[in-house]
């Protein structure tokens, strides 16, 4: 009896500490209570919830799993385990947990259905994703549900009730600089584009982008990008040859898919992911983080940004390589040696990466300048830089990317395969074989049926890579020609080069 009363009082005190933000104090109490009452499932559950709030997801899963061992009918615990799996990107396990929670009666929470719908979207189960997102819509998460639904289905009638509702919601939000207005604008643009109403589609895209740009323009992102690109080229022109090379590693063979967003990187990744020897890791953060990490290693030198590369010695380079490899391997549950990193921005870091991985493979995805620029303009990115939300800045970004890639091609001792989106879509089997050959992989027939390969995809191309090849996105810019005359003029040289290549 004494232990039971003590537990109740202490648990109540622990919950009050959580409310006050004293998570460490709450964890200490819960651990003591668990040691006294190891068979109490709720204590394990509550401890897991605290770890989830602290973003310590593996510990949250461990505590939740112990609670389930003690009481397998705890729907809320299954839900929380699923939330933790979702956060670490294990969507298959997250889906299992959400299914169990649902089967046990957890079905009245709009956040539950919204999160589950997104998990199913990443896994490519669009039919069930739509079902769950409609439940979220029913329970009041209309804007979030519409935003997600617009990315996983084709709309055919501009009088669709959901489009009408989205327009009403947008009118109520218009003028407000908030997440809901932006999401609705991009969603309406996409739905109306599906229906062929390009005038209205562009109008909503333009409104959403203007809100984003007004909020972000002070970052001067495109100016900073151009400046860094110029500095990068100066640095590697002067010291690139003297940077030490790391030794090749037969147990780690990276393939870097680079380019601009919306240039076909997800399609190329899906083709490679269909190969039995390849692990597709998605967009890993370690390429860009290498720059920050390298700066910390030589911060005593006082050298300015990027010029600090001059201070990197063989030991530093090995540390940087280990940093990347360790991070990638933590995600690689398949333990396959060939790993694909499809972060488009890695084009900027090819110089440093080529020193860490002298035998690395690079695939550069290119697409018609107007198509790729418009596609970026029509996308609501998780990365918040102003040069994604203004067509003139997007054009400058495109030019900067082209100059940087041309520099690498002329100065790095690594083969770079250019893959034109139009050509890939036009002859998927021939181009896929060319990609496999470039990567040193044998041809496997399933690579031509990449859309059947089951894996999670989190990029804006989550729907497209699940479909058989289609060419409706080629020449899409013509639907918006009257709106992008200035863009066509800005990129006239780049368009000429592309069409002749």
What is the straight-line distance between the termini? 82 Å
Specify the CATH architecture of the largest domain.
3-Layer(aba) Sandwich
- The count of domains is 2
Q: Taking strands numbered 1, 2, ... along the chain, how are they ordered across the largest sheet? A: 2-3-1-4-5
How many strands?
5
Tell me the CATH superfamily of the largest domain. P-loop containing nucleotide triphosphate hydrolases
The CATH class of the largest domain is identified as: Alpha Beta
Helix content: 55-70%
What radius of gyration results from the CA coordinates? 25 Å
Oligomeric state: single chain
Strand content: under 5%
CATH topology of the largest domain: Rossmann fold
Folded structure, characterized:
This protein starts with a helix and ends with a helix. It is 59% helix and 5% strand. The protein is mainly α and 501 residues long. The chain has helices at 2-20, 23-36, 41-53, 57-70, 75-87, 91-103, 110-123, 126-138, 142-149, 161-173, 179-194, 198-216, 221-239, 265-273, 286-297, 314-331, 350-356, 369-377, 391-411, 421-426, 428-438, 485-490, 492-500; strands at residues 253-259, 278-280, 338-341, 361-366, 416-420. The radius of gyration is 25 Å and the shape is globular. It has two domains: 1-107, Tetratricopeptide repeat domain (Serine Threonine Protein Phosphatase 5, Tetratricopeptide repeat, Alpha Horseshoe), CATH 1.25.40.10; 221-472, Rossmann fold. The protein has a five-stranded parallel β-sheet.
């Amino acid at each position: 009896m004494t232990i039971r009363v003590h537990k109740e009082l202490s648990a109540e005190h622990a919950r009050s500490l959580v409310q006050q933000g004293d998570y460490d104090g709450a964890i200490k109490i819960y651990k003591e209570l668990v040691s006294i009452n190891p068979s109490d499932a709720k204590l394990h559950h509550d401890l897991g919830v605290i770890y989830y709030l602290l973003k310590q997801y593996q510990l949250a899963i461990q505590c939740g799993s112990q609670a389930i061992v003690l009481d397998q009918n705890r729907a809320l615990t299954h839900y929380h385990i699923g939330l933790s799996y979702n956060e670490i990107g294990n969507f298959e396990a997250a889906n299992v947990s959400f299914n169990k929670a649902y089967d046990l009666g957890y079905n009245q929470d709009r956040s539950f259905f919204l999160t589950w719908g997104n998990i199913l979207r990443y896994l490519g189960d669009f039919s069930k994703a739509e079902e769950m997102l409609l439940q979220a819509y029913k329970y009041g998460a209309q804007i979030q549900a519409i935003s997600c639904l617009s990315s996983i289905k084709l709309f055919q009638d501009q009088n669709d009730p959901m489009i009408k509702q989205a327009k009403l919601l947008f009118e109520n939000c218009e003028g407000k600089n908030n997440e809901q207005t932006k999401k609705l604008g991009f969603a309406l643009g996409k739905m109306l584009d599906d229906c062929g109403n390009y005038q209205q589609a562009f109008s909503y895209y333009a409104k959403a982008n203007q809100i984003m740009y007004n909020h972000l323009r002070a970052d001067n992102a495109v100016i900073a990008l151009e400046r860094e690109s110029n500095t990068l080229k100066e640095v590697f022109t002067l010291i690139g040859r003297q940077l030490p090379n790391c030794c090749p590693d037969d147990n780690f063979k990276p393939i870097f898919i680079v380019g601009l967003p919306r240039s076909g990187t997800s399609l190329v990744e899906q083709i490679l992911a269909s190969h039995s020897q390849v692990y597709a890791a998605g967009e890993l953060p370690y390429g860009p983080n290498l720059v920050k990490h390298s700066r910390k290693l030589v911060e005593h030198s006082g050298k300015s940004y990027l010029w600090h590369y001059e201070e990197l010695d063989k030991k530093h380079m090995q540390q940087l390589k280990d940093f990347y490899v360790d991070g990638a391997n933590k995600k690689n549950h398949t333990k396959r040696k060939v790993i694909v990193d499809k972060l488009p921005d890695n084009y900027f870091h090819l110089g440093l990466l080529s020193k860490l991985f002298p035998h690395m493979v690079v695939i550069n995805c290119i697409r018609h300048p107007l198509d790729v620029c418009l596609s970026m303009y029509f996308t609501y990115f998780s990365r918040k830089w102003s040069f994604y939300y203004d067509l003139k800045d997007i054009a400058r970004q495109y030019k900067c990317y082209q100059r940087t890639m041309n520099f690498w091609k002329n100065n790095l001792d690594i083969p770079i395969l250019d893959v034109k989106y139009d050509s890939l879509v036009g002859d998927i089997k021939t181009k896929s074989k060319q990609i496999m050959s470039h990567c040193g992989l044998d041809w496997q027939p399933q690579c031509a049926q990449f859309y059947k390969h089951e894996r999670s995809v989190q990029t804006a191309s989550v729907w497209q890579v699940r479909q058989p090849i289609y060419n409706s996105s080629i020449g899409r810019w013509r639907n918006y020609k009257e709106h992008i005359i200035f863009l066509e003029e800005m990129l006239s040289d780049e368009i000429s080069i592309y069409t002749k290549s």
